Amino acid sequence: MSSVKVSVIVPIYKAEQFIERCVRSLMEQSMKDDIEFVFVNDCTPDQSMQILERVINDYPERNNQIVIWNNPENLGVTRSRKKGVELSNGEYIGWCDSDDWCEKNMFENMYNQASFNSLDIVVCNYEEITNEGTKIIRIVHSENPQIAITNSIYGRSFSGVLWNQIVKKEIMKKCWNQIVPTNYSKDTYVLFHVYYYSQTIAVIDEPLYNHNTENLQSLVHIRDNTKAAWLVQQENIERIEGLYYKDNGWSKFHVALNGFIFERKNLYRNAFDSDKQFFNTFRRASRDILQFYDWRKMSTWKMYIAHNCYFLFKLSHKN
Q: Domain Glycosyltransferase 2-like, which positions (predicted)?
């Protein structure tokens, strides 16, 4: 195989119901040469790997483009993806979750866009499949990756998932070592670093990826709500703060990051030992996010007062 342009990393865990569709969508990519597929088995207990082997045997022309790695123990999606990056040889890194699938022209289109315009990141729209049906998720174009971060508070300027993006490997390797492994929001933490270090980005206004939310057993749909899990989230947040805020000063990413912290903190509320601990953790995030509320409404003033006085906060959060 000549020099690899794109490495596609696929972590595998409990995906036997969907993995055949995933693998066939990769083997049938229109990008015939200069692409490799890195499958990382995270000690899946089902028949996913046997199905993988059977399917790739149908595509002997891809034999030299396939890498299969077996983790010595179940490591979780973050470490599995990191291992995939270490094994990859591509100029760009792409992704596919084992219960999702790609359109046949996905990686050819994305690489051509990246190569022609010398881009660090290329993002595409995607179709989301739920039990209720499907919908197309459109990513708003941003002038550069930093603007995408600052605009994330307003909508979909920042795609917080890896699988609808390709990123230069040199940037991805640098960023992957800066996060603490977690099975929840791992993509977002990596991408907060990736977008900070990147300079150029483009969005392909076409749904090239299909995201399936029906497999609740897969690696990416497992969330741990324990205190230990929250402490990992907190450490990742603090690492991003250390990157974004220089000399403890204001950052152009301040509001966007605090919006993310506000959402994350409330998601893990049951992991805190007490209401007071919850109140005092990342307090500025609660205050900061209130500037986006309508101050003509009494509810906004009540929230503001509650988030600045613990006694009133306690009263406002009584069951």
A: 7-174
Residue-range definition of the domain harbouring residue 54: 6-221
Same domain membership, residue 251 and residue 114: no
SS3 assignment, position 119: coil
d(CA 301, CA 135): 36
Q: Are residue 241 and residue 199 in the same domain, yes or no? A: no
What are the pLDDT digits (tens) for 46-67?
999 999 999 999 999 999 999 9
Q: Which two tokens stand for residue 248?
A: 């403890």
Counting Cβ atoms within 10 Å, is residue 57 exposed (0-12), middle (13-18) or buried (19+)? Answer: exposed
> Rounded to whole angstroms, what are the CA distances from 116 to 15, 37, 172, 254?
35, 23, 20, 33
| 93 touches 35 (CB < 8 A) | no
C-alpha to C-alpha distances, 317 to 184, 232, 276, 307, nearest whole angstrom:
26, 25, 11, 11
* Same domain assignment for residues 152 and 235: no
Residues sharing a CB contact under 8 Å with residue 60, sequence separation 6 or more, in sequence order: none
Structure token pair of residue 58: 């149908």
Quote the crossing angle between the two packed helices 186-197 and 254-267, to the nearest 10°. 170
pTM (two decimals): 0.85
Q: Helices 169-176 and 186-197 meet at what angle, rounded to 10?
A: 120
pLDDT in tens, 160-195: 899 999 999 999 999 988 888 887 777 888 999 999
Asked if residue 162 lies in contact with residue 171, where contact means CB atoms within 8 angstroms, the answer is: no
The token pair that represents 12 in the structure block: 């595998």
Distance CA(219)–CA(141), nearest Å, equals: 29
Q: How far apart are CA 72 and CA 69, in angstroms?
A: 9
Cα 168 to Cα 88: distance, rounded to the nearest angstrom: 12
